[in-house]
Amino acid sequence: MMMDAARIVEYFKGKCILVTGSTGFLGKILVEKILRVQPDVRKIYLLVRAVDEPSAKQRVQQEVIDTELFGLLREKHGKGFQQFVEAKVVALAGDIVYDGLGLEAAVLDALAKDVDVIVNIAATTNFYERYDVSLDVNVLGVKHLCMFAKQCARLRMLMHVSTAFVSGFREGLILEKPIKPGESLREGTYLDVDAELRLVKEVKKSLAANGDGDGDSTERKAMKELGLRRARHFGWSNTYVFTKAMGEAVLGQQLRGGDVPVAVMRPSIITSVRRDPLPGWMQGTRTIDSIIIGYAKQNLSCFLADLRLVMDVIPGDMVVNAMMAAVVAHSEAFAPPLPQVVVYHATSSLRNPATYDVLYQSGRRHFYENPRVGKDGRVIPTREMYFFTSIARFHLYMTLIYKVPLEILHLVNLLLCGLLSRLYNDLNRKYKFVMHLVDVYGPFAFFKGW
């Protein structure tokens, strides 16, 4: 269905929208975009973690409204900016990990009567997150939001943001298919969400019974390792994409047979704003930025990547534009007969592919033309990077260059009665950290799907 920008903008006029995850990168872009292009939106409710309403309001003000991303909107409204925001934006102190979204009954009832559109962006995106935390936010959070959606008398659309990598690391064309309950990527396995929730409770109970549960660090490590182990058992590479896949399955299961249109947006690697409101804007350090920063500081002499492969990134503002268009396209006001759950891949690999070589050559050219200067005022020379085209080659390199010398250092340290313990422990910790990063992030460097 073809839609022009005016039609999309008009749809949001007079609407009440509930947004989760508004303090995150994508959430901020969405809130700013709606307020800027459709000032006649009725209300935008922002569900944020806070102890009470004043704290929620303060958090939204500091972490969302006061950011530089809202500069264009601030300039547009001038002195009336704050008044405009206060009339449109409502901060709610709650959390999707709880029944009823953690809201008081009266607030929840009033919200259910008012909301036209729900946009769920809330998620923990840490690849190596605790399994219990990931299940709470990425899976149970979706369930609680679906239960709330069923109570909303005016609801016309539920937009859920997932990730393109729930499809795993298959090669070739990956179709936009909903994830069915029980579906996994490993043949012969059945993914039972309730069983996974029970498993977490049993493991934590066992840790406590053995006297290990008292230490936060012990439980944290156990939960992180459990998440990765379960993800790989079912065919996913890390806890984040695994629990996002479960969240999608729960979404379809909870709203099956209902009358609420549901759209799932699966972006690939989200990067900075391309066009508006602030080209190049980025919040924090995201996946690709870590590589650029490491190269800029000359801390990265080598990296894991096949420069010929497509680096599937998508600007944040393009993802938000796609989300808004999908909401309009599949809301009951305009939609022809459609599947209840529709899936969109917001990616660049098929339409406008860019290889890892593009990233490397762009960064290399920039730092040759604009070299960094150290604290002593001297120019930091820009070196070439070496790229390993397989994880096996990288492991061999790390073993010969780092692991073997580490073992020699360990032996010398023993002979010297621990004199070099601090040096050995520090280098060993760094080695293990790098190997862990490769283990978790490595598959993304060789992704061949589109």
TrEMBL record:
<keyword id="KW-0521">NADP</keyword>
<comment type="function">
    <text>Catalyzes the reduction of fatty acyl-CoA to fatty alcohols.</text>
</comment>
<dbReference type="InterPro" id="IPR026055">
    <property type="entry name" value="FAR"/>
</dbReference>
<keyword id="KW-0444">Lipid biosynthesis</keyword>
<feature type="domain" description="Thioester reductase (TE)">
    <location>
        <begin position="19"/>
        <end position="323"/>
    </location>
</feature>
<dbReference type="GO" id="GO:0080019">
    <property type="term" value="F:alcohol-forming very long-chain fatty acyl-CoA reductase activity"/>
</dbReference>
<dbReference type="Pfam" id="PF07993">
    <property type="entry name" value="NAD_binding_4"/>
</dbReference>
<comment type="similarity">
    <text>Belongs to the fatty acyl-CoA reductase family.</text>
</comment>
<dbReference type="GO" id="GO:0006629">
    <property type="term" value="P:lipid metabolic process"/>
</dbReference>
<keyword id="KW-0560">Oxidoreductase</keyword>
<dbReference type="GO" id="GO:0102965">
    <property type="term" value="F:alcohol-forming long-chain fatty acyl-CoA reductase activity"/>
</dbReference>
<protein>
    <recommendedName>
        <fullName>Fatty acyl-CoA reductase</fullName>
        <ecNumber>1.2.1.84</ecNumber>
    </recommendedName>
</protein>
<dbReference type="InterPro" id="IPR036291">
    <property type="entry name" value="NAD(P)-bd_dom_sf"/>
</dbReference>
<keyword id="KW-0443">Lipid metabolism</keyword>
<dbReference type="InterPro" id="IPR013120">
    <property type="entry name" value="FAR_NAD-bd"/>
</dbReference>
